[in-house]
Specification:
about 350 residues; single chain; Sulfite Oxidase, Chain A, domain 2; five-stranded antiparallel β-sheet; Immunoglobulin-like; mainly beta
């Protein structure tokens, strides 16, 4: 393979669709835990919105004492915080489900992370004054269009329960990695909801509304819902917290390797607590050994990088597996939780290699 076409040297996004744009990060060729905006995965339901930031206002309304309008300039003067957050599409690894689930067949790269700077959502809610009886906070984006199941035009809107909206690390972000958020990732304002799948992190924020009921928008009540039964909607429940998960980055699936020493490396992440253990199997799950966690996400919302030293002297085919456990005792299952729309895949990761 020539140098100019080697994806490990010149990685690029992996396209699933271009209108709307849905492309994943080349996660197996990412060596940094800070993802460059050009390689940050892109997930859209509609075309990119048309925005003019010169007249941009953020509206906070609904069940509040005093509806407010905030300018970008005002936001920059408010107390801010910077948090390192992993964002994972809830459809990440969908292509691995058996039987197949409908939707974009994301491989293992619908996940990225970096530093987000912004103002806690709570700050805006406090300034507007939340009235008694408030239950949810609806965040509406500027992106809109028709869904495949309706002729109506919808904006992308999601809600958070009041408790999650008031969490100090739920922020209205305006910078990514010390630069204004790139337009394709939500400029000028993007909601960042740590520990929840990224559909909650609404881009191109148009307005924030406090309501006293359960939000029923289609991206809340139809999409981003686990439907565990093939034939009906019985037992359904909403997609929220990220499942504990891991991905083997090196070696690559179906690599041919020589006998000797090899490094098996990858990343693990969770939506509850922190990663406490990563185990690796080189014999298809018959035996497991602990990997060395290099960067541990102690008290933060980032992934943990890990490595395992493997000495192999016998030629043949090997199945390598990784299994992460978090501080709440959640471990990756051997069989994924199948659901109609293919959300939340987090079964033990596995690849195959051949030793010659």
């Amino acid at each position: 393979m020539s140098k100019s076409h080697n994806p490990s040297i010149n990685p690029s996004l992996i396209a699933h669709s271009l209108l709307p744009e849905n492309q994943e990060t080349p996660i197996h060729f990412i060596k940094s835990d800070i993802i460059d905006p050009k390689l940050f995965y892109r997930r859209n339901h509609f075309s990119y919105p048309m925005l003019t930031t010169s007249s941009y206002w953020l509206s906070v309304n609904g069940l509040v004492e005093k509806p407010r309008l905030f300018t970008l300039q005002e936001m920059l003067t408010m107390p801010s915080k910077t948090i390192k957050v992993v964002l994972e599409c809830s459809g990440d690894k969908r292509y691995l489900f058996v039987p197949k689930a409908f939707g974009d067949q994301w491989q293992k790269g619908a996940i990225s992370q970096g530093y987000w700077k912004g103002v806690p959502l709570r700050t805006f809610l406090d300034l507007a004054g939340i009235k008694a009886g408030a239950k949810e906070v609806v965040v509406e984006g500027y992106d809109y269009g028709k869904r495949t199941d309706s002729d109506r035009v919808y904006t992308f809107s999601r809600s958070l329960p009041l408790e999650k909206a008031l969490h100090p690390d739920t922020i209205i972000g305006y910078e990514y990695n010390n630069q204004p958020i790139p337009f394709k990732h939500g400029y000028p304002l993007r909601l960042i909801v740590p520990q929840w799948y990224a559909m909650a992190s609404v881009k191109w924020i148009k307005q924030i509304s406090i309501i006293d009921s359960e939000f029923k928008g289609p991206f809340q009540s139809t999409d981003y819902v686990y439907y565990p039964n093939k034939e009906n909607e019985a037992g359904s429940f909403p997609v929220t917290t990220i499942n504990v998960n891991s991905t083997i980055q090196k070696p690559l699936d179906m690599n041919v390797l020589n006998t000797g020493k090899h490094f098996i490396s990858g990343i693990s992440w969770t939506g509850k607590g922190v990663i406490s253990k990563v185990e690796v199997s080189t014999d298809g799950g018959k035996s497991w050994s602990e990997a060395n966690i290099i960067t541990q996400n102690k008290g933060s919302y980032e992934w943990s990088s890990w490595v395992f030293d493997w000495s192999v002297m016998e030629k043949g085919e090997y199945t390598i597996m990784s299994k992460a456990t978090d501080s709440y005792g959640r471990s990756q299952p051997s069989i994924p939780f199948w659901n109609q729309k293919g959300y939340g895949y987090n079964a033990v990761d596995k690849i195959k290699v051949k030793i010659e």
